[in-house]
Amino acid sequence: MARIKFILQGKSSNSQIYLRLSLSKYVSFKRKTGYSIDYKDWSKSTGFPKSNDPFNKNLKVDLKNLEVFVEKELNVSNTNGMDVTSLWLKDSIANFLGKSEAKELDYLVDYTKQYIERLRNKSNNNGQKGVSEATIKKRTTILNKIVKFQNHTKRKFKVKDVDLKFREEFIEFLDSEEKLSEGTIGKYLKEVKTICFDAQKNNIDVSSQLIHFKGFNVDSIHVTLSFDEIKEIQKTKFEDKYLELAKKWLIIGCYTGQRVSDLMRMNKSMIEKHREYEFIVLTQKKTKKIVQIPIHNEVKSILDSLDGNFPDVFSENESSNSALFNKYLKLVCKDAKLTYLAEGKLRNEETERLEIGKFPKYKLVSSHICRRSFATNFYAQRRYPTPLLMNITAHSTEKMFLKYIGKKPIDYGLQLAKIWAEDI
To answer: Is 207 in contact with 163 (CB distance < 8 Å)?
Structure first.
């Protein structure tokens, strides 16, 4: 548990008061509070000024208020996953004192913090207020990387410092120190540029090189399960109840096309009947869109075996549930003999990097394979027009949908050619 203590530096009539923040037995930071006192008026036993005159009484109140303020800032930073450093402590104290240094929005970290806060009031594509918590979390991750980069370089960057030199150094840091993949680095660069353009709109000075500051895309390798592979998994019997649960959720996922955050929230109360058909109706956590998913026969078979209920989840905690699902999926696919080599990306435990290559397919399987398999398997079949599939996956445009399944616009021509060939 974090501890805050005030200490004096030196013994004089104007001794500086420091705040020491101890995060653990081995990690602590010390910064000036901006206050000073005659060391004779300081109580070592309480760690506060003696209450021997009105000035010291007021100083004691100020220090206690500072202590509470830093504790609150610490809780917020921990919740958002931000690094707590010596620089963080300095800025927190400056914020409390109302000094302009920490509040100046021409600093990259300060502006990014405000940018994230404003996202909570931003109008989204649905005309509603705010963005999803997942979006806030992603932007906070960017902020965290910038803070780490500042600590690494021992510099405090202004928004106008984001130039081509910054870009090269940031790429090197994310690659060598953070061990991030090229695709992730490319996305982070785009985010930093977006933040800086937002700052420019708000009259913050930016680099003349910002227009040339670009991210990049890396072609993704899409791993999916074919209908034949899904059938092999269906036929495989498992004595372990958790593997059997994972199998059932996998099959449901491959026929409903939802992200794991929505898939494993499904329950009996979401089933609605319209005319003679049954649907799963839910509001997606990420997009806030309402989707109406017809219940496929394969899904109905599982629900019927459970008296109309969905399978149990692995944990009540969403993150733990997702992690366990990923773990069991690999075992399910391994037992279903998906041991042949397939192209994909796998993390090398020694280098801590994602590597492209041929690996046993079961090792490449994760929870996201459900949604992508649904979209890929049903795409371009005459019976399933793309707009119908998009209505279930909730992709906003066909371009996004095609990119998601790794198809190019030329595939439309091939689709039409196949239809005409069947009509001859």
So the answer is: yes
